[in-house]
């Protein structure tokens, strides 16, 4: 019975006990010894392997599992025990003196259970507290041995396991996913030569140039200290007060106010290493490098009104999207790209490559695709893996080295340091998710929670009693690039660091008009929430140095005059950059298909059952996710007498959870037409510029919702597909095309008329 049921489960087909009827049955169970990886593959994701990878292990084996198998626990068919392994007879009643008497101190079972519970929480990350992780692998397209000896790039087709954690920055651990914020994009490569962490963000620049300023920045953006508000939002006085006094943050602010700070999905955002890094080859020659992750699914973002509503409708929107995509076998992928350049080239740039508030335009140094990352397995346990994973910029392997970027230099210290309080001591590298696949041998010993049992009497080096082992690797080991430095010790910064506006201008002016409008609107929103007029004015005074139109638009939106531009550092160079089209999300190549898009099909009594069946099947076969949405759960009778099971109600599944809506013939009758949420649903779909497809009588619902039938300029709305019942089949093609193109921004007016 359970097998049959497992086959029908929407996900985690091999964990039927967690879902549906089977979850209420006693476990029939399996063994807890994960001996045979094929037999114990426990999620649908694990049973898939990439066809692309010739050297992948047999079907059903996920190579990122093997190292964790020794600690994976499955309690099916097992007796309940204490932490000491003693079988527990009664897990419901504490030990009392008489049935109505006091509980005994002797009850070690009760005390162990409560004591453990009392200590279940650990401190959350001081920034990036809210995150979601996944396992996967990186595959190199070609050997990069000419520029680096780093293990993942040693040969074409080489596969390196990874664990990735995506995050927001400002919100606490339980905050909502769709806040306007930078997203963390941290990748741990478990290479043959040790762990390499590429701890990046989804924006290529940063707010500040020097690590010295980071605690102030984080304090300013986090909830204000006296009342701990607002949660997961930069729209408050302390943040804007700080950044308005920190003109170097201007470039990043324009990015943060862009739609990139509200991605549709982790799967549809870029990632960046931000800093300039060094690559070093086996001969010791070095080049500079910037890291880019480009999503294979193309980039896509939310619109702000939608993001704000999503925080209520599904605070786990991004976490759920990532989890479900992997469980469904639609494995998220990114291409790794490198911008490689020499020290001599760097000297010619108008900006300093050690300044993390600047990027290198792709038109100047092209991005070379060097490999692909695939996320193909969800964690077994959120705490053990996603919460306990510890990234650190100092975790590099031979072939990768740092530069003197003063922001990076500070990070090299911070990440290990913070784990010591977060994970309770210096042995966090032994926590399974953090443990290297490469063997670890040194004379570091003891400390809280030590797992390894080191043998022998030698715990020092040099030694003769241990035969000199473990021995230094010499040429084989990590060697810092011998950069020549001869300078005075000073507190200060180089001249090129003093120019803060030219790249902000390049970014803003490289955006499409729609994107520019969204940026201005986001500044307006955030600064409207700011209570102190002087802070608003100071932000606009900085923007006045970026782009006059931007400054004017924001000032207009706040009902104020554009103030005099803030003063510029007099000795700063004033570069002027050509536009960089690659910076606009809307001009980047998008995905062509509609895989994983979520489509609501409004369903009630009397709808066109055969028509729904057809579009449902067509969407499924294109990899999309159709859902029958009705006034409430239950079975509806279609006009042709067929029966349709509503999958979710308008109340539980509002518009923002869907990329598009279909209104079939017959939806205009009965309870759908009488329900306020139907109108709200359609108006939100329209306002968020999503494709709408109605046929036959269904079109009457669009009229009832007062949706314009053409664009504000009077032309046809390509996202609005309305057909007669007879033409529905042909019109479906047009709808799918609109869906592949995401949104019809031409609908937008400011303020919205719908
Ligand atoms: Fe971080 N950052 N950061 N950061 N950061 C942390 O480390 C820090 C910076 C980034 O999913 C902390 O383990 C300093 C830039 C990500 O676990 C902490 C400075 C970039 C994550 C820390 C920066 C990042 C963190 C908090 C300026 C993009 C989440 C918990 C000198 C390139 C990693 C932790 C995860 C997390 C310090 C600036 C990305 C406190 C001091 C620039 C993705 O160590």
Automatic annotation (TrEMBL):
Residues 81-469 form the Catalase core domain. One of its GO terms (cellular component) is cytosol. GO terms for biological process: hydrogen peroxide catabolic process; response to oxidative stress. Heme binds at residues 125, 165, 214, 411, 415, 422. It catalyses: 2 H2O2 = O2 + 2 H2O. Its EC number is 1.11.1.6. Residues 11-65 are annotated as: Disordered. GO terms for molecular function: catalase activity; heme binding; metal ion binding. Residues 28-51 have a biased composition (Polar residues). Its cofactor is heme. Keywords: Heme, Hydrogen peroxide, Iron, Metal-binding, Oxidoreductase, Peroxidase. Pfam families: Catalase (PF00199), Catalase-rel (PF06628), Catalase_C (PF18011). It comes from the Bacteria. The active site is at residues 128, 201. Gene3D superfamilies: 1.20.1370.20, 3.40.50.880, Catalase core domain (2.40.180.10). Belongs to the catalase family. HPII subfamily. Decomposes hydrogen peroxide into water and oxygen; serves to protect cells from the toxic effects of hydrogen peroxide. PANTHER family: CATALASE (PTHR42821), CATALASE-B (PTHR42821:SF1). This is Catalase.
